[in-house]
Design a protein that fits this description.
670 residues, Rossmann fold, 4 domains, alpha/beta, 20 helices, 6-stranded mixed beta sheet
C-alpha cells in the first residue's frame, strides 16, 4: 500500500487529470482499489475549509459528495487527485491504483481531433507496446529464451485484457454515447464550444478506466440523452466512482452512499440521495428544535444583560452571562438542506387556448431545424422540451416567446396571454451598477418589496450578498438573479430555458414547489430528469429527423422508451443467433411488465365501478317517478351517455395495456 503525508499548498491545474503508473502490467480489472484518507485538513487564509476528516472508499464504491456551495467539495476531489496539496493529509491505497479527475469547468483542448484527444487515455500502454515490439524483433533475429517468450505472453495478455486493441471501437462508443456524430470524431478540438470540449474531457477520463473516477458536476453540459447514457455507463462501470452533482435524479440512480461536507466535517450516509435526504430530514428536525431552544435561551440572556448592564449589583451576573454567550457553540442548519420557499405572482386571466402552432418550420440557410410542427397548447399545461443539443430547443422557445420571428408557418397567441421568458443569456441584460437587491426591486410589485430578501435567499443570495454590485457577480450568480427577475413578473405563460442550471438542490426544490402551485402555463427546457419528472405534465421531444413529438403525460413511459434507445450496447454473440438480453434489459422489461399488470388490474377495477354506476342509473331510469318527470329523465339520460363513453374509453385503455402486456410476455418467456 502507498502511504504518504502532504503539507503545504499546491497549484491547481484546470484540466482532466489522471494519476497513473506508466507501466500498467498487472493492473487488471480485478485489482483491489480501496482508498483510505485520514486527518485531511486544509485552510485558506483564516478559514478552515476541511478539518481533520477521515473516510474510506471501498472497492467499487458508488459515492455522492454533497454540501453547500463553498463547502469544499471540489477541493476535496482535487486533493484526492493530487492536484492540490493539503496542510495535513494521510492516505493509503494500492500502489498500482489509478485515479482520474474531471473538473466541472475551464477545460480548454486545442491539440488534435476529438478522437485523438480521447485516445491519449491509452498512452499508459505505450511502454508495453514498445517493449512488445522490441521482444518481437529480438525473437525474429533468432534470440530465443523462455524469459522472452513468457514476457511477450504477459504483455499480450495485458493488452488484450485491458482492451488496448479494441480502443478505437471503445472510444467511438463513448463519444457517440455522449452525443458526438461520426463526423465530429475527427474534427479538431478547437472547433468545439466549451461545453462540447468538456464532453471530450469526460470521454477521456471514462476511456482511462481508472480504479477511482472523480467526477465534478459531470452532467452540467450534457443533454438528457447523454445523461441517460452516462448513467447507464456508470451503473456497469467495474471500479469506484465519487460524484459531485446537483442532479438529484442522476445521483439517485448511480450512488449507494452519500458523504456530506458541513463546516469542514465529513459524515457518511448509507443509501441513495433520496434516502440520505430522508435520514437528514429527521436529523434536521431535531437540529431545528435544538436551534430554536438555543435561540430562545440566547434571547433571554441578552435581555437580562441589557436590562441589568448598568446596575453595579448585577455586574457579576451580567459578566457571567456575557462569557456564557461567548463560549456558546451556535447550532447551525446546513445551507444546502434548508427549506427555502418561493411563490409566483398570481397568473392574470387568459383564454383556454394559450398558443396555436401550425406548420411551424425553422431553417438556418440550408439547415432545417424542425419542419411541419403543429400543436395547440392549452391553459395550465406544463410542457418540458427535451432533445439532444442542436435539435432546436432554445430556438423553439425563442419563437414561442416572440423573440425570433424568422420562421415559416403561423403562431397564434391566445386571448389575454402575457408571456414571461427566461433565456440562458438573460444575465446580459442586468444593470451592472445596481446592487442585487436594487436590481430585483426594479421589477417587484409594492406587495413583494418586504419579501425581496426572502426571495433572494431562496436563490442563494444570503446575508451581505444582496448588497453586492451586479457587475462583480459570477456567471452563475448573474443567471440566478436574471431568472428570479423573470419569475417576479405576473404572467400567465412562463417560457424558461434551463431555469435550474445554476441552482443547488435546495433551490431547485423551492422552484419546483412554486411551479406546482403556479396557476399559469409553463413551457421549459431542462436536461434534469428529476425536474422534468416533478414539473412536467407532458413532454415535447425534438429530434434531428422528425417534427417535434408531443408525449401527453406519462414521463415514466417516455423515460422507458428513451432508455431503450440509450442503453449501453451489449457485445453480440459471434454465432448467428438472437443476442441475449443484458441483466439491465431484463430488469427493465420485468419492471414494465409488473407496471402493465398493475395498470391493467386498476383498469378492470375502474371498469367495475363504471359498470356499477351505469347499472344504478339504468335502474333509476326504469322507475316511474323518474321517467315521468322530464327534468329527471333528461338528467339521467345525460349521465348514462357520460358513463357509456367513460366505459368505452376505459375498455380501449385496458385493451391497449393487455396488448402490450401479452407482447412483452412473449418476448420474456418465449
Amino acid at each position: 500500500m502507498d502511504c504518504h503525508r502532504k503539507r503545504g499548498c499546491g497549484r491547481l491545474h484546470h484540466s482532466a487529470y489522471s494519476r497513473a503508473n506508466q507501466h500498467p502490467l498487472g493492473q487488471g480489472r480485478g485489482s483491489l482499489a480501496t482508498l483510505q484518507v485520514q486527518r485531511l485538513s486544509i485552510a485558506f487564509a483564516d478559514r478552515q475549509l476541511l478539518n481533520d476528516i477521515s473516510f474510506t472508499l471501498s472497492e467499487r464504491a458508488r459515492t455522492a459528495l454533497v454540501g453547500a456551495n463553498g463547502s469544499g467539495k471540489s477541493t476535496l476531489l482535487q486533493i484526492i487527485a493530487g492536484l492540490v496539496s493539503a496542510d495535513i493529509y494521510e492516505c493509503a491505497h494500492p500502489k498500482e491504483m489509478r485515479i482520474s479527475y474531471l473538473p466541472q469547468s475551464d477545460i480548454v483542448l486545442e491539440d488534435g481531433t476529438a478522437f485523438e484527444q480521447v485516445e491519449l487515455a491509452y498512452n499508459r500502454f505505450l511502454p508495453l507496446v514498445d517493449e512488445q515490439h522490441s521482444i518481437e524483433e529480438r525473437l525474429a533475429t533468432g534470440e530465443l529464451s523462455d524469459y522472452l517468450l513468457q514476457r511477450l505472453h504477459e504483455i499480450q495478455e495485458t493488452l488484450l485484457d485491458e482492451g488496448y486493441h479494441d480502443r478505437k471501437t471503445e472510444i467511438a462508443i463513448i463519444l457517440k454515447g455522449l452525443g458526438f456524430h461520426d463526423d465530429d470524431l475527427h474534427r479538431p478540438c478547437g472547433e468545439f464550444s466549451g461545453g462540447w470540449q468538456m464532453r471530450i474531457a469526460l470521454a477521456k477520463v471514462l476511456a482511462e478506466k481508472p480504479h477511482l473516477l472523480l467526477l465534478d458536476e459531470p452532467t452540467n453540459y450534457l443533454d438528457i440523452e447523454a445523461r441517460y447514457w452516462l448513467r447507464n455507463y456508470l451503473r456497469v462501470y467495474p471500479e469506484s466512482v465519487m460524484i459531485v452533482s446537483h442532479d438529484r435524479s442522476f445521483l439517485d440512480e448511480t450512488v449507494n452512499e452519500v458523504f456530506e461536507l458541513f463546516h469542514g466535517q465529513l459524515k457518511r450516509y448509507k443509501g441513495t440521495y433520496s434516502q440520505y435526504e430522508e435520514q437528514r430530514e429527521l436529523e434536521i428536525q431535531s437540529l431545528i428544535h435544538a436551534y430554536e431552544q438555543q435561540q430562545e435561551e440566547i434571547k433571554k440572556q441578552k435581555e437580562f444583560i441589557e436590562r441589568f448592564r448598568a446596575k453595579a449589583s448585577k455586574a457579576r451576573q451580567v459578566q457571567g452571562r456575557i462569557k456564557q454567550l461567548e463560549k456558546l457553540e451556535i447550532i447551525e442548519i446546513p445551507e444546502h438542506l434548508r427549506n427555502l420557499s418561493f411563490s409566483f405572482p398570481p397568473a392574470p386571466h387568459s383564454g383556454k387556448q394559450v398558443l396555436k402552432i401550425e406548420n411551424l418550420t425553422k431553417r438556418y440557410g440550408s439547415l432545417t431545424v424542425f419542419e411541419g410542427f403543429d400543436s395547440i397548447i392549452t391553459k395550465g399545461e406544463r410542457i418540458a422540451v427535451v432533445g439532444k443539443n442542436g435539435t432546436g430547443k432554445s430556438t423553439l422557445l425563442r419563437i414561442l416567446a416572440g423573440i425570433d420571428t424568422d420562421y415559416q408557418g403561423s403562431l397564434t397567441v391566445g386571448s389575454g396571454v402575457r408571456i414571461g421568458y427566461f433565456a440562458q443569456d438573460a444575465k446580459q441584460a442586468l444593470d451592472d451598477s445596481n446592487t442585487v437587491l436594487d436590481e430585483l426591486a426594479s421589477v417587484a410589485s409594492t406587495a413583494d418589496i418586504p419579501r425581496l430578501r426572502t426571495y433572494l435567499g431562496s436563490f442563494l443570495f444570503s446575508g451581505d450578498d444582496v448588497f453586492k454590485r451586479v457587475g462583480i457577480l459570477s456567471g452563475g450568480e448573474r443567471s440566478r438573479l436574471a431568472l428570479l427577475k423573470t419569475l417576479m413578473h405576473p404572467v400567465n405563460l412562463l417560457i424558461l430555458d434551463e431555469p435550474t442550471n445554476h441552482l443547488d438542490i435546495a433551490a431547485k426544490k423551492a422552484l419546483l414547489q412554486a411551479i406546482r402551485e403556479y396557476d399559469g402555463t409553463l413551457i421549459f427546457v431542462s436536461h434534469d430528469a428529476y425536474v422534468i419528472q416533478e414539473a412536467a405534465t407532458s413532454i415535447l421531444y425534438l429530434t434531428e429527423e422528425n417534427p417535434p413529438e408531443l408525449f401527453p403525460g406519462d414521463w415514466s413511459y417516455f423515460s422507458y422508451r428513451l432508455e431503450q434507445k440509450e442503453a449501453i450496447p451489449v457485445e453480440a454473440a459471434k454465432e448467428e443467433k438472437k443476442p441475449a438480453r443484458s441483466y439491465r434489459e431484463e430488469r427493465q422489461k420485468h419492471n414494465r411488465l409488473v407496471s402493465l399488470r398493475r395498470q391493467a388490474e386498476e383498469s378492470l377495477l375502474t371498469l367495475d365501478v363504471i359498470e356499477t354506476e351505469l347499472q344504478e342509473v339504468q335502474r333509476l331510469m326504469s322507475q316511474p317517478e323518474n321517467y315521468s318527470v322530464e327534468e329527471k329523465i333528461l338528467k339521467l339520460v345525460k349521465e348514462e351517455e357520460r358513463l357509456r363513453k367513460n366505459l368505452a374509453d376505459e375498455e380501449a385503455a385496458w385493451l391497449m395495456l393487455e396488448e402490450e402486456r401479452m407482447k412483452l410476455e412473449e418476448e420474456l418467456y418465449e
